[in-house]
């Protein structure tokens, strides 16, 4: 793949992931004493890789797909971030998501920087054999830019543990040795970590629990609505259900269901278990994804896709607390409206950071060639999440800021200190 300089156009969409990430960075920088040059550097990725990924289809024809990898910052350690297969993957989206990964790793105090990448493709249009060939070719195209101490991909939208296994195998075959640490999110049988796939949802549930405690909301009396019943939303919903909360609504891409008395979340199949399985049953009523966001509940967890809470619906949201399960579900304007209304929004870079945290655990296990038990993973994850939560809460209570600004203050302070200490190469 070739390196490509990034040019930000004047007419960049206001609600793109990149524009939102930059706006959040600038807002956080006003609250702390950080060199303007460092802030300017952090607005831009270190590099963006773009390449053509040829695929021989099952019928013998050849199709060319575009692949990206944005590497935002590595001042605190190797780049880290997901690979997604989705028709809407763009360069700007990868850069914005890579920036969020930098902050996510920093707020969790992990020795990683941020990256994100993907291929512009709908995986539903590919057979399993085609997905494997595409992944192996993508791994070869990226081989000079990734590695256990350079850049470590992980699963994301449209990719999974099997994708990471193919990627790792292709990379290892070219290196002439097994290199499990080149990716995380692999199956445990080849160096993956137990508990990795459910980690983002688990962290969302943990942060929701701590947030409820902060606002003196007993979890046993809390009502919760979850948009997106995939790997993140289903895990969060089921854990909160187990801990005593009443999950009144869940949804997937086909729509949602609602029951004021509470749903049996374990009886509902997640999107990964059976796509579009959320459908009305006896005692439940059907609602749209848009209606779910406006339900009168204690906690709303948008865990589907980005930009679902906007200036068009922010005033209609009735939830007392919002915990972001997806990446970037709240636009800048919606954030402003929620702040004016006094609605707490717990940001994605804290709430769903369980994924990268257990990826870090996996990386450590691969380096040491020693696998942890699921019980240890859960214990270590909870300890890391509670530590990060307390760091963010300390800034929130000490300053007149939002939860998002508090999280960015923690993250930016750590990244800026590292940059200041290392200095700028001439």
UniProtKB/TrEMBL annotation:
Query: What is this protein's name?
Result: Glutamate dehydrogenase
Name the InterPro entries on file. Answer: Aminoacid_DH-like_N_sf, Glu/Leu/Phe/Val/Trp_DH, Glu/Leu/Phe/Val/Trp_DH_C, Glu/Leu/Phe/Val/Trp_DH_dimer, Glu/Leu/Phe/Val_DH_AS, Glu_DH, GluDhGdhB, NAD(P)-bd_dom_sf
The keyword Oxidoreductase belongs to this UniProt entry's keyword annotation: yes
User: Which molecular function terms from Gene Ontology are attached?
Assistant: oxidoreductase activity
Q: Subunit structure of this entry?
A: Homohexamer.
Keywords linked to the UniProt accession: Oxidoreductase
What residues correspond to the site Important for catalysis?
A: 156
CDD domains for the chain: NAD_bind_1_Glu_DH
Q: Which PROSITE patterns match?
A: GLFV_DEHYDROGENASE
Locate the Glutamate/phenylalanine/leucine/valine/L-tryptophan dehydrogenase C-terminal domain: which residues?
193-423
Does Oxidoreductase appear among the keywords?
Answer: yes
Spell out the family assignment given in the record's similarity comment.
Belongs to the Glu/Leu/Phe/Val dehydrogenases family.
| Pfam families, alphabetized | ELFV_dehydrog, ELFV_dehydrog_N
* Active-site residues per Swiss-Prot or TrEMBL entry: 116
Organism per entry: Haloplanus ruber
